[in-house]
Amino acid sequence: MADFYQNGIVTTLHNLDNRPLEQMEAELCQFAAQRPLGLILPSLYSELQGPALDNIVRHLCEVPYLNQIVIGLDRADREQFRHASEFFSRLPQHHRILWNDGPRLRALDAELAELGLAPKEMGKGRNVWYCMGYVLASGKAESVALHDCDIVTYQRNLLARLIYPVANPQFNYEFCKGFYARVADGKLNGRVSRLLVTPLLKALQRVVGHCDYLEFMDSFRYPLAGEFSFRRDVLNDIRIPSDWGLEIGVLSEMYRNYASNRVAQVDIANIYDHKHQDLSVGNDQGGLSRMSIDITKALFRKLATEGHTFSSEVFRSIKATYFRIALDFVETYHNDARMNGLRLDVHNEEKAVELFAENIMKAGQSFLNYPMERPFIPSWNRVQSAMPDVFERLVQAVEDDAADIAMEESGCLSLPA
To answer: SUPFAM superfamilies, from UniProt (predicted)?
Structure first.
């Protein structure tokens, strides 16, 4: 059970008494009458093949307060889109699938690319961005939650706790980040957050000095959590990265756009486990190695916009400071794990720290070498300014894809490739 301590400048909403789910869902149903609630599920087609997403959908079928579910489907061909439509058809809520690899959404993406407004790379950031656009375009939800589709320990109270802070009309939060302990199968997980982000933020505070942005970021208990919720108006101006810096980028945008008292974090799960990435030593184009570089660059880019100047010498100081702090954290986490009867391999922890330290230098060098790099996807306000009918066309493409599936199932149509 969590304590009630408030750290940093962001409100922490704890799980103090394991409130009954039925009681919370009854309140959410009342809130939904005033403020319709939605959910975004960014999914790879491959996730339909595993047990996690099937369990998530089974729990979502019991959720009484959602007005809309938006599913972003990546890496799916025609037959796989058909299967996905059948897979999600059991959801009783109004739901739509964005077939991101389908001809209609590809055509719209190509037009946006000609205007320089499309996401530059495939991945979760692109998927989430299009889902956010669809939420704006459809107008069916005022408050929206987003969570991943690979959570193997999923229970529907996770969603209730995640969306409650932005659903309650008596709260003034525009955005809420989920947090949880990354403990599963007797192990302490969450290496990138524990061993990269937390010590790197503290190293940056030592090297660049006091900075409101770093204080804001250091207030989050699990900054890399893929679960967050927001009011719909947040989506108009937010600019998110298309790479692994998505979660850091979203938090950075909330710092830019809103006062800290409009942002909260909430304890959403006693246990949490999902798909694990490889450390990818020797391959900085994949796994946790690529993730660590993208996350570090996201922090450097944001600090640069705050007026901080970087050089190779500064990056060396950051790396050295980080390395010492991170190694101290390894001992701390080892003691914490042992106290709780959990396993933690100190050798592998220190290997991860060594890799992340090396990647801090790679991220810094990339930052210096490519000063015009633009990893952020444009805001939907800008897109709508350049293509005024983009929302109507996005909704029409999704509706036409859904209609094609319905007609094909009735034997009246062959779905286009």
So the answer is: Nucleotide-diphospho-sugar transferases (SSF53448)
Mean pLDDT computed over 321-350: 95
Task: Give 2-55 pLDDT, tens digit per residue.
Answer: 578 898 899 999 999 889 999 999 999 999 999 999 999 999 999 999 999 999
Burial 280-318 (b: 16+ CB within 10 A, else e): beeebeebbbbbbbbbbbbbbbbbeeeebebeeeebeeb
Residues with Cβ < 8 Å from 330, sequence gap 6 or more? 195, 346, 349, 350, 353
Backbone angles phi, psi at 139, to 5 degrees: 65, 25
For 182-208, give one letter per residue: b (16+ CB within 10 A) or e.
Answer: bbbeeebbbbbbbbbbbbbbbbbbebb
> Dihedral of CA 360/300/197/128: which sign?
negative
Report the distance separating Cα 153 and Cα 52, nearest Å: 8
- pLDDT band at 283; cut points 50, 70, 90: low
pLDDT at 277 > cutoff 80: no
Of all residues in the chain, what percent are helix, strand and coil, respectively (each to 5)? Answer: 55, 15, 35
Name the token pair of 250: 């979203």
Contact 290, 354 (CB under 8 A): no
Q: Which residues of 369-399 are buried (b: 16+ CB within 10 A; e: fewer)?
A: eeeeeebbbbbbeebbeebeebbebbbebbe
Report the alpha-carbon distance of residue 231 to residue 241 in Å, rounded.
20
Q: Are 70 and 135 in contact (CB under 8 A)?
A: yes
Q: What is the distance between the alpha carbons of residues 229 and 217, in angstroms, rounded to a whole number?
A: 17
Contact partners, residue 275, CB within 8 Å, separation at least 6:
52, 150, 152
How many Å from the N-terminal Cα to the C-terminal Cα in the chain?
51
Indicate the pairing of strand 66-74 with strand 37-44.
Answer: parallel
Mean pLDDT of 49-74: 97
* pLDDT tens-digit series, residues 375-397: 789 999 999 999 999 999 999 99
With a pLDDT cut of 90, the percent of the chain lying above it is 80
What DSSP character marks residue 343? B
Give the strand order in the sheet containing 11-13.
Answer: 11-13, 263-269, 175-180, 228-231, 143-146, 37-44, 66-74, 95-99
Q: Which residue has the higher pLDDT, 184 or 248?
A: 248
The pLDDT of residue 374 is: 72
